[in-house]
Amino acid sequence: MADSFSKKENFKKKLQKQKEKAQKREERKTNNNKGKGLDEMFLYVDANGQLTETPPDEQERVEIDIDDIQLGAAPIEAEDVIKTGIVSFMSDKGYGFITENSTKESIFFHENNCDIELKKGNRVSFEKEKSPKGFSAVNIKLIK
Fold first, then answer.
1. How do the pLDDT tens digits run along the chain, 144 residues long?
2. Does the pTM of the predicted model rise above 0.90?
3. What are the residue ranges spanned by the domains of the chain?
4. Could you tell me which residues are beta bridge partners of residue 143?
5. 82-142 CATH pick, 1.20.58.1190, 3.20.20.80, 2.40.50.140, 3.40.50.720
C-alpha cells in the first residue's frame, strides 16, 4: 500500500532534522576547546598588566630587590615644627590668616597667640596646631 503525501513529507522532515543534527555535532567536534595542549591554555601578563598569549621576554624583565618591598603603611615623615609665612589678612577683631611659605596654605591665627602686634605683610614664624575647625597658628614670632 502506498504512503500518503503527509507521511512522505514528515519522513523527509525527519531525515532533514537528522542531517542538521549530525552536521551540528561535527561542527562542535571541530571547534571543541577540550583536549587542547597545556601551552594553548596559558595566558601571560605583560609589563602593562594586559593579558597576552605570548610569553614575556626575559631581557625586558626588571629585577626587584626584596629589601625594597615595604609591608604595611608608609612611614610618616616628621615635619619641621617651626614654619614660616607672611600675614596675608588681619582683622580689627584680633584674628587673621598666615600664608605658609612652603605649602601656600592659609592658616588661621588669633592675636592671643602672638607676642607682639602683627600687621598685614609681616614675615612670621609659627607652629601649626590642630584645632576643632582645622589648623591654627600658635607661638607666632616676628621675623626681621
1. 678 999 999 999 999 999 999 999 999 888 876 666 777 778 888 878 889 888 877 667 778 899 888 888 888 877 778 899 999 988 889 899 999 998 899 999 999 888 888 889 999 999 999 999 999 999 999 987
2. no
3. 82-142
4. none
5. 2.40.50.140
